[in-house]
Amino acid sequence: MAKINLIATCRRWFVGAFGNLSISPTFIAKLAAVPAGDVIVFGDKVEPNLKVVGVSLITNALGASTTLTVKIGTATIVNAEGTVTAVAKYIPVDDLMTAGGQDISLVVGGGAATGIAKLKLHYEVIGNL
Fold first, then answer.
1. How distant, in Å, are the alpha carbons of 17, 32, 77, 92, 127 from that of 57?
2. Is the confidence at residue 24, as pLDDT, over 70?
3. Residue 119 has pLDDT above 60, yes or no
4. CA 51, CA 45: separation in Å to the nearest integer?
5. In angstroms, what is the C-alpha Rg of the chain?
6. Do 36 and 80 meet the contact criterion of CB atoms below 8 Å apart?
7. Integer Cα distance of 66 and 110 in angstroms
8. Which of 59, 126, 50 is nearest to 93 (CA)?
9. CA torsion, points 73, 77, 80, 86, in degrees to nearest 10?
10. Cβ atoms of 70 and 89 closer than 8 Å
11. Cβ neighbours around 28 below 10 Å, total
């Protein structure tokens, strides 16, 4: 299992009025025959004190038997979403509070993945309550 670190884009997240639903910048991973078990870590870390409530996952068909697992830190928020065919959907997740410096990552499963995966986190700003 290899770990692939992507370059940080340094885009700002909205951290305004508490309680408003917001969407993160789009995280994009360009995959070229990435084997099952490899972890793709986005360069940008998740902002602290957010409550993640959902994920938008958009991919083209990544290959036979492929899946993607989405993680924030060590917490799995989307488990083994099938990507044999194109995916474009919103996936609600159990509320997850973030801490500063947590990685946002994709884990490839099932087979080698080739294509583009895009990820957007839907969240509420909780702040330092």
1. 26, 18, 12, 11, 26
2. yes
3. yes
4. 15
5. 14
6. no
7. 5
8. 50
9. -110
10. no
11. 13
Contact 115, 63 (CB under 8 A): yes
Beta strands in 1-129 (DSSP E): 3-5, 21-23, 27-34, 39-41, 50-59, 67-72, 75-82, 87-97, 104-109, 113-125
- Gap between the Cα atoms of 12 and 70, Å rounded: 21
pLDDT at 126: 82
Average of per-residue pLDDT across 79-93? 95
The Cβ of residue 96 has, within 10 Å, a number of other Cβ atoms equal to 18
Residue type for position 63: G
Amino acid residing at 23: I
If phi > 0 it is left, if psi is from -120 to 50 it is alpha, else beta; for residue 62 that is alpha
Amino acid at 55: V
Amino acid at 15: V
